[in-house]
Amino acid sequence: MNYCKAILFIIGYLTIIYIIGTAIGAKYSAPRRFIYGYLLNTFIVSAAGIFTQMFAINWYIYYYFVLIVDLLMLIASIYKIRRDGIILFDGGFRSFVSNYWFLILVALIATSLVAIYNFELWDNNTTDDAYYLARMAYYPYIKNPYSIDPTTGFPSVHKIIDLRNFTSFEIEASVYIYFLKIYSTLFARGVMSFINYFIFSVSIYAFVEKVIEVSGLEVRRQNIQYYSIIMLLLCFETAQLAIHGIIDIRDGWMINHAMYFGASLIRSVGFIWLLIPVLEFEEDKKKSILLFVIMAFVLLAKSTVVIPIIAVVGIVGLAYHLILMKDKRILIYVVLLILFSFLLGNNWQNSLTNYTDGVYYNHLYDNLKSPIIIIFEVCILFIAFIRRKKYLKTNILFALICIMFIIPPLNNIIEKTSVYAFVDKRAVSAFTMLIVLYACILVLNEVFIYITSIFKNVLVRNIGFTLLSIIIALSSALTVDKSLNNIKQDLIVFKNNRYLAPSFIIDLADDLNDISKQTQKQLTILTPQFVSAQQDYHQRWYNRKKEIPNIALAGSIRQFAPTVRVPFARNGDDTLFEKYSAFLFYPNKKNFNTFIHVQRKSEVNCIVMWNKKGDRLLKDSGFKRYKNKVSSQYCILYIYYK
C-alpha cells in the first residue's frame, strides 16, 4: 500500500506541477513549463515554510495552507488553460510522449540504483538522515517542533534568525508524508529522489534547448530529450573514482543515494537554472531578472550552500552582458571586482581535504588535472574553437565562470561566500559537473547536427540511447559492488527491507509507539548505536578505506517513532551511555548496578537489550519486558520499559 500511495503521489504531483507550468508558460516546451510550475509552487510553499519556522507557527496551519495552495493553484491553472484555449500537449498526447519519454526513463534508472546503495542507506547516509528524516517525520506529532533537536528529540533553543529556518524542504515533505501516511524513508529516498532526478533531467533539457537557441543550431525537438543521458554520467558513483585518485567530488555520494537532500538539487541544477535567465537577458530584461530572483530564492530554500553559486552567476551575468554590449564600463567593473577580491582576502585552504597525514587533495586544481576532466576540457576547447562563431555567447559565459573559480584573486569571492570549507568544496563539485555537462552538450550537438545519418531511424535512436543509459547505470553500479553477484545480493537485501530502511528498525519503532500509547508517557530510550550488517556484506571500500558496514540504529528510530527521545545521539560518549553499553554487552550484576545508578538520575525509562540475560535484574528494578521481541537476520532485540 505504501508503494501504491507513492506511485500515485508521483503521478499526481508531476501532473499538477505541469498543469501549473502550462498555465503560466504556454509558449515554452514541456520541460520548461514543468520547471516554471515547480518554481511558482515551491516559491509560495517555501516562503510560507520559512515564515512558519522563523516564528514557530502551529504546523497544522502550514499543513492546511500547503494543501489549499496546491488545490487552488490547480483549479486556477485549469481555468486559465480552458479560458485561453491553451494546448496541454503540443502536437497531441502521442507526440508529447514521443518527444519527452526519455526524460522519465533516465529518472527511473537513476532512482532504481538507490536499491543497490543500501550499504550507505543502512548507515543513515553517514548519519545525516538522523537529522533530515527525523525532522520530516516529527512535525505533526510534537507540540513545538521548532524547539526540538531532530536527532534526539530533546528540547533546543529556537532562534528566529537561524540558517536552518531558511531551509524548507523538510517541512514541505512533512506535509505530504503526513497526508499520505507513508514512511519517511520511502517518501524521501524513493519519491523525493525520483522527483529531484526528474527535475534534473528536465533542467538539462531546458538548458540544452537554450544553448541550441542562442547558438542558432538546428536540433529536432525529439532529439533534445536524449541529452538527459548526461545526467547518468553526472550521477556516476564517484567514490570509486576518488579511491583510485582519478577525481574527488566532495560529498559525491549525495547524488547517488541522497538525491532528496536540498544540497543534492543545488549541485544538480543550481548552475543550469541560474544561467538560463542570464542567456535570456537580452530578450526581456525585467522578466529575466525576476526569473533569476525566484530561482535563487527557491534554491536557497533547498539549501544555503547555493550562495556561492548565486554570487558567481550574478557577477558573471553582469560581466557577460557588458561584454556583449561592448560597454566600456566592463573595464571599470573588472578593476573594481579585482580590488574587492583583494580586500576579501584569500582562503584557499577551503578547497583542501586532508585524507592522510601530510597528504592533501585540492578539490579544485587536482580535479582540473584529472585525466577524465582533461578529456572533457579538450572536447570543450576543440569544439568551441571549430564552431567558435556558433558558440560565441555560451563560450564567453562558460569562460567567465571558469575565471571566477580558477583565477586568484577573483576566486576569493567563492571562498568567502562559502563561509565553510565543505560549502566551498560543494561549489567546486557543481563547477566540475558544469564542465562535464557543457562538454557533453557540445559533443552531442556534433552528433545530432553533423552525424545525423546514424540516427535517422527513430526506433534505432530509442533502442540505442536506452541501451546506452542502462550500460552507464550498470557501469556505475559495478564500480560499487565489483561483481554482478554483489548487485544480486543488494537486490535481495532491498527485497527484504523494501521501505529503503532496515525492516527491524520499523518493527522496533512500531513497538515503541505502542508502548508510548499504552503508558501515555514520553519515552526516553537507550538503544545500541549500531547493529552489524556483516551478514549481508563483506568489507567494502568506503570513504577511502575498507569498512564493514553497520546499521545506524540509534539515529534511525525517530524516523518511525518521532515522539521517542534518544539521548545517545545527543552525546554518544556520556557516562549514561557508557554504563548502558557495558551492561548491554556484559549483562552481569556489577555492570547492572553501575548502570542503574546513573539511569535513576536520568530521564531514561526504556532500554533495548540484545538478549534476556539481564531480564531478572531489570524486572527487579521496576522495568517491564514488552510482549514482543524484534527478530531479524541482523539481531534480536528486547524492549524494557517503566
Describe the structure.
- Keywords: Membrane, Transmembrane, Transmembrane helix.
- The protein has 642 residues and is mainly α.
- The protein folds into 3 domains: 307 residues, no CATH class; 146 residues, no CATH class; 139 residues, no CATH class.
- It is built from 28 helices and 11 strands.
- Strands 3, 8, 9, 10 and 11 form a 5-stranded mixed β-sheet that branches. A two-stranded antiparallel ribbon has the order 1-2.
- A hairpin with a 4-residue loop joins strand 10 and strand 11.
- Helix 15 runs antiparallel to helix 20.
- The radius of gyration is 26 Å and the shape is globular.
- The model has no long low-confidence stretch (mean pLDDT 89).
